[in-house]
Amino acid sequence: MEEGSVKVITISDLLRRSRPLTAASSLSLSSTPSIPPKPHTFNQNHNFTSPTQNPNPNPNPKTLTSLNHPTVLIGSLTLPSHQNLSTSNPTSRCPNTSCFSFSDGSSTVCCDILDLDIRVIGRKIKVVAWNFIPLKCGGGFLEIISWRFLETSGVLSSCSNVFPLVSESLIESKDSHKARYSVFGGLESVSPVSVVPCVSSSSVSTNVCGFLAQVLVCECKVCSMKKSKMPLQDQIEGKDGHWFTKPVIVYFCGLASSWHPVIVKLVGSVVSLSGLKRKLVFIGEKDSELMYITSEKTTLCLPKLFDGRFPVSKTRIKGKGECETYTGTVTGIYMQGMVVELDREVMLLLTDSLIALPHSFRIGAIVSMRNVHFVNPKFCWTKVLILGACHKTSFIVKCFSPFATGCFRNSQSQSILGKFINSLSFSARLWVLLLVSSFRKKFASILTEKEVLGTNHKEGLLQTYATSWLPPSVFRSRHGVFREYCKHDSCGCGNEPNCGQLKLVVPISHFISHCKEIWIRMLLEWETDSNLLDDPDKNSHLSCEGLSNTRSIKRIVHSGDMGVVLLGSVKISSCSGRLQLIDATGNIDVIIPDLSSDWSIDRIYEVNNFSLVMEGKPERVDSLGLHTEPFLCRNIFSSIPLIREMKLANYLFFHLEDTKSRNFPFHVGVKNKENFEELQSGRFHLLLVTHKYPEQQKFQGASMFAEVFFLPWDLLLVDKDGHKCPTKLFSDLLKEPMEQPYASRNYQECVPSKRYKIDHPWNRDLISIFSSAEYELCGHKPCCSTSSSTRSYWEQKSSSLSSPPEIPCVVTRKGQCQASSGILCWSKANLKVYSGCKPSAQKTLLEFNSENFWKYELLRIGGYYIIKHHKEDILCTTQDPDDVSCGKVNITSRTPLWSLSFSSDESLQNTNRPHRPTDSLDSTNEAVSKCPSENERPLLNLNVDSRVSHSDLHVHLSSNDASFLKEDIEVPDECLVKPSVSVKESAKISSCKETMRSGSVHYSGTSDLEYQLPEGNLISFHGSVVDVHNSGCSSSGANLWCKSHVDVSCTKFFQVKNSVCIHVLVDHHPVKIVDAQGKHSYPIGFGPNVTATFHRVLDLRGRNELILTPTSFIVIKSIGVSYDQRGEKHDNGLIASGQCNLASLDTYPSALISEILQCSNCKPVQFHCRVVAIYILVLEDSRKVVYPQSRFHSWSPVVNIPLAAFVLDDGSSSCCCWTNSDNAAILLKLHEEFLHDNHTLSTTGSKIIREDEARGPTVRQLDKVLQKHGRVSVKNYGSLFDSSAQDLIFSTTSDTIFSSSDEDLLKVVILNACFSTFWTVFGTRMNSNAIGKLEKQLMEMEMKMHPMQNIWVREVQYTNPLTEARKMAQELLNR
Amino acid sequence: MATDALYNTHVKLLAFDFLSLTPAPSDPFAFTRPSGNLLLTRAETLGVVTTRELKPDRFLKFSVDDGTGCIPCILWLNHLTSPYFSRRNPSDVRLVSEAATRFASQVQLGAVVRVRGRITGYRGAVQITVSDVVVERDPNVELLHWLDCVRLARMYAFTLLLMCIRKQ
């Protein structure tokens, strides 16, 4: 018993306490508690650099509770019992067959020991420092840090270093004479313990448990002797010149297999085994291997002279599956122990059920892995190193974790998914494991676990998805432990295929966090740039009515840059009424231009190809929230901390049927109700959508409304019985007599696999026929205002018919190539009033309840739709057709709507017919007025209003019938309001006579004069949104636009609180629209640079202002995103304030450099100059920048230029011009290799070219140089006025040598820049503050500011000599 | 305003003006205009190549006609052999030499070239020792150059005026 106050604690006591504890006997001797040394990160024996220390590695590091008195454990360490190998270790109920046991008589627990001395096995020891971790299933785990023998030193000295593997009492001597072989060499690797079914001579089947070990033996003469006369010990120690090169396999089977935990700890040591048998062992059906097999006489010897490691050749790690050793700290364990994170950036994969994770692999432990495969998967979304564990891998804990973290117990099930994962290469395994984690989060409440992961017999959704993405090269066939161990190199786990193309499926919550992180990074980068410029006006401000507003910034990131895939359902949000992509973790707004009736809210869509648009006001950000990195593997496996709320709007833009990029539904959760069966035959009412009422915020979750006109024609469909006729022309088909029904014809050459396009000239032109006629107001009085020509046609037609006219047509359904016949006939309601007079359309409201919001979403203003006729429907029950105009039709799930499109063969002859620029279907070709500056400096446009038609039904008519029909399906103009040609003259627009009071939505006004409703015309128009901002001026803001008596009343009416101003350019004229209440439901993506149609906006009489009413509806046509928002601020502010119609960078005054230097202010100017030399140039690999393509590096996608100074000369003087990013790339002429046509070049241009064809040879070489060195700085210590006398000095951040060829390449680039033509530079003279900041930066680079004048370059453009000459001539004449 | 206000600037002078330059008595590397003592060392001109005389690996002499006169230019091609460059970094010399050879090939009769270099004297006449040549393809650049020269001439005159005022 220990002297003093040291207590002995029993295992049963520890188990009873069931708490994680640490203790040491030295506690009383030391003033500080004895806590195991803090884990520290170290890497050895591998070529990877030490990972960067994360500032916050463990948010809650709880160290193990220490017992407050010195405590020891007394017991003995034993090997695992493998006698009954079909069952697990009975003593500890631990399934791990490689665990030591510690028993003190009271109980037995699993244990692990540091610095194993084999003599300890079976002897009584005193454990003086230990950790105890309770295991969930009742047991516990003991970590023995230090121990002492209880026996006296005399007993110990008698212990030799030769250990029999099988206890003498268990020996049954049979063929002991065969056990005459010995193996002496370096232990290279050990396999996991496996069980082999075996049939013994007595035909009783038994299981043989064992493991394989590979020993590299020496082939020298002494070692090669079969029977050495010398004793083994002498043989080993008598010679020191051994070369361990020849691999032999030793099979530790039977009772010897219990030595597995010992042998694992000896990997890397020199061992000697004697008393071995030699046998040929089958390792597969045909293959056999000569092995040494342990016998009951086998002994293990650890030669004293070979105490250290045997020398091994180091492999050069390329990350392609090389086998090496890795040591690091466990920082996370995920997926039930299948993934272990080391050093926060290395992922150890332990998917194989045989490879058990030791209990001591707790978070915080320092562990070493031998023979682990190093794989760099090169995933595009994250940087990670994979360590792949195979059957040769062994694990040793170097230092136990001081943290109270739990042990993992392997419980890999052998489900189909488990087998599938194990059949993959390591990088694919990690990808699938990430997929598992992601899918479980995404579909937590949508699908069951079994549906997602599958069962033991059935594949789940996840496996189906993974299989569809994985290339065949990642699949490996598995061969069992023996074969894979013995033929390791030929089994393929050391040869890793490239999986860089695999995209990460992210939960939407992670995606949104990622968006925020990109946004913060962009703002930070922008702030850095602006700080350097010292621009007080760095945030673009828009002046509106004397009030300044910060403009929002918009950025776009393409999915290709992120390397992620989004999965989710596309639904209408019940809260916002917006279209969203939803999964169990979150939702994000989406714009889907090609949304069609195929869309099902029950489907799960895979969105591969999308554009992420982020829009928000610039705000001050810090880098505190920047360490979430939602796409990191550990964050996918676990959860991510929330980033604070930001004023940021995110939305996605994608096409749903973009089959090339796999944006398609891949899973149907609930069977989609196919309404298309109903479309096969029957009578359908034809309707035209004239207006959609936006969602009213206070009626959330209530109903949505659309105004439609039921046209006086019904469509009769007969069952299709068509046959393919792909060669016949459609026009020919219609010329055939009616007796031959069109049903037998296919009017278009259809390829079944190809999406059916109806955006055909025929279609467009028919619609133009319908709509291009001169409209006249007819109100609710039909048959009064038809033109004489049409009337005569009508009279002719009606007089020639004794019955109501019927128009035969050919009908094609979406997705079907076979055409069928149909008939357009008068509607039932009109039949009642048929008397040779033209029938009328009837205005009705469609009401959509929340379950059918998706149908509302599909409706397009100006689109034709059909609705199935029911006896009880409103059209057929009303006696007086005029009554319907006041009616309302409830659209329920049982009343499907199908979209309809028309075409006629006449259109072929009328291709040049002018189009009526309305919001009807033909608006494809309408000339939407664009901001002139927008035309000059094109934006990247997302075409929201994709007019690739996706109508469910296509109706083709003969030309005669089409012209007959067009008269009847035209709609009163009061509904399809013409866009104003000139908003300035909006008061003159006579097409709209509807006032607010007679509008469809009635305000609850009173007769009180104070609450008089504002009056004016409702107009519709297209325009380019310049800015949208809150007036933020409550009553004062209201007063600004409500000055007259009427205005005062409207102020009261609208209860102005926080109105929204929308500045729109319509035909180059600035127009201001006011959303008085600021509560309008704007469509997703609405904001600056959007081209939109504004429907039913109230034009107050006599004022050049428009009011957005609750009935106004905005349809976005396209969304523009400029590459450099900063460039825009110079013009749009002026445009919006009406001061300037055509502003651009030309608004900067031109000057000579000498004049800028004399000028006292720092206003931006433009000047023409040439590059003479560089002063400083910093180049870096743009892959280090967050999505460089989405930022400013449109021309040099591989090169980022954080800082550059060029000496420019314009003939009047020289100056030092500082710039970065694109402007620097332009001055270096890096883009010239990208573009052949350089006339339209500017930094804000959007010339889109394919990246692969864009990169020239120099840029490719530059790319290589930057890849090698990361960041290169070039400083000119020579002449700044003579390009050929520059003295360029190069420096890099990397340790690699900057070769002369690399130098030459950069010198050529710089010289080439100096031999350039004229540039037009837009810049500002830097003030002392900016220069001070720059000096600081230069000081870090050991450079000084040159005493030349310094100018910050905002933009660089090629000079157009003719334009400039004209301007200069004008200037000279004016002076 | 010092006399060296334009010392390191590539001044743009029309040929008639350029040809009137005389060596500055105060500075062996500088030239001055008859109208004042502004020191000029570098110039830029633009015009049509009207004469061309090549001595391979030694020099290319050519003249640039800008419509007001012809400016003689010399482009040295002897970088690799001249002792003048022997102290410079060999790789720099090689690159400059390669560039000069490329310029020489571009300077062809009839081509519109933009030439930049040092103002030097040779046998009593002024010329440009070329540092770089850019072949211009847009004929409008000549027009722009003329106007630029006119604008700059005003600026040079103004600089001179300022200089005189300050002197007084």
Q: Which secondary structure elements does this structure contain, and how are they paired or packed?
A:
The complex is a heterodimer of chains A (1375) and B (168).
Chain A: E1 7-8, H1 11-17, E2 21-24, E3 65-66, E4 71-78, E5 100-103, E6 108-113, E7 124-134, E8 140-149, H2 153-158, E9 162-164, E10 181-190, E11 194-199, E12 205-218, H3 221-224, H4 232-237, E13 244-253, H5 260-265, E14 270-282, E15 288-301, E16 320-334, E17 339-342, E18 346-349, E19 366-375, E20 385-388, E21 394-399, H6 416-422, H7 426-442, H8 449-453, H9 461-469, H10 480-486, E22 504-505, H11 508-533, E23 541-544, E24 547-550, E25 553-558, H12 559-562, E26 564-572, E27 579-583, E28 586-591, E29 603-607, E30 611-616, H13 633-637, E31 648-653, E32 664-668, E33 682-693, E34 704-717, H14 730-735, H15 761-772, H16 788-800, E35 806-813, E36 819-826, H17 828-832, E37 842-848, H18 853-858, E38 864-868, H19 874-877, E39 888-891, E40 897-904, H20 932-936, E41 940-943, E42 953-957, H21 959-968, E43 1016-1030, H22 1034-1041, H23 1045-1054, E44 1060-1066, E45 1069-1075, E46 1090-1100, E47 1105-1107, E48 1113-1121, H24 1125-1136, H25 1153-1158, E49 1165-1181, E50 1199-1209, E51 1214-1219, H26 1221-1227, H27 1251-1254, H28 1257-1269, E52 1271-1276, ...
Parallel strand pairs in A: 1-4, 2-3, 6-8, 13-15, 18-20, 22-26, 28-31, 37-39, 40-42, 45-47, 51-55
Antiparallel strand pairs in A: 2-7, 4-5, 4-7, 5-6, 7-8, 9-15, 10-12, 10-14, 11-12, 12-13, 14-15, 16-17, 16-19, 17-18, 19-20, 19-21, 23-24, 25-30, 26-27, 26-29, 27-28, 29-32, 30-31, 33-34, 33-38, 34-36, 34-37, 35-36, 35-42, 38-40, 41-48, 43-44, 43-46, 44-45, 46-47, 46-48, 49-50, 49-52, 49-54, 50-51, ...
Helix pairs in contact in A: 15-21, 28-29
Chain B: E1 10-12, H1 15-18, E2 22-23, E3 31-32, E4 42-55, E5 59-65, E6 70-76, H2 90-106, E7 112-122, E8 125-136, H3 140-167
Parallel strand pairs in B: 1-4, 6-8
Antiparallel strand pairs in B: 2-3, 4-5, 4-7, 5-6, 7-8
